[in-house]
Specification:
By secondary structure, this protein is of the alpha+beta class. Helices cover 24% and strands 33% of the residues. It has a single domain (15-184), classed as Chorismate lyase-like (Chorismate lyase, 3-Layer(aba) Sandwich), CATH 3.40.1410. Strands 1-5-6-7-4-3-2 form a 7-stranded antiparallel beta sheet. The longest helix has 9 residues, at 39-47.
Length: 187
């Protein structure tokens, strides 16, 4: 397992969200990829209040190269990395990976470093000036995932995902979300 991730053997390949890309993505995936609100809230609207978070990895470390570049982070600076599985009664819905620089944690008054089992969306969408800066899209083949991730999420086919740069008080963070088959059937 790569020391940088519970989820990935290697860094996924991302495509910048450009005009025309949307039409190459299946309709049920578009619905989740281009959701402008909180995915957590959308999950609760569909499945009820029983949405739970399982923390797979949470530690201070250096992010992947493309993550550092996207966030304009120095190479050897540690950032909080959090990987989780959102599920309902053990049924996997969304895998997520979040990179939060120290400066963003300070701007958010430390709320982002003390999430525990609360979903990130529950916190960041409560900030009135949350900004969405950029978004990329990917389709990840099963070979990119680690064996523990494949087992945890029941992955046996390519998985679509998005990664979004958000800003809280002009301080950036990166949230990558991967849509598992159960959630794609519920749009």
């Amino acid at each position: 397992m790569d020391a940088k991730s519970f989820l990935f053997n290697c860094e996924p390949l991302w495509q910048e969200n450009r005009p025309g890309l949307r039409h190459k993505i299946p309709e049920n995936v578009q619905s989740w990829t281009y959701e402008s609100g909180s995915l957590t809230q959308r999950l609760r609207d569909i499945y009820g209040a029983g949405i739970a978070v399982k923390i797979l990895l949470q530690r201070w470390q250096t992010p992947f190269l493309s993550e550092r570049r996207l966030l304009k982070l120095p190479e050897h600076h540690y950032n909080l990395t959090r990987e989780v599985l959102l599920h309902i009664n053990g049924k996997p819905l969304i895998l997520a990976r979040t990179i939060i620089p120290k400066s963003t944690i300070k701007a958010a008054k430390s709320n982002l470093s003390k999430l525990g089992n609360r979903p990130l969306g529950e916190i960041i969408f409560s900030y009135p000036k949350l900004e969405r800066i950029a978004m990329d899209v990917t389709l990840i083949n099963p070979s990119t995932w680690t064996q523990p991730a494949l087992a945890e999420a029941g992955i046996n086919q390519p998985v679509w995902g998005r990664r979004t740069v958000y800003a809280i008080a002009h301080k950036h963070m990166l949230v990558s979300e991967f849509f598992l088959p159960e959630v794609l059937g519920s749009f």
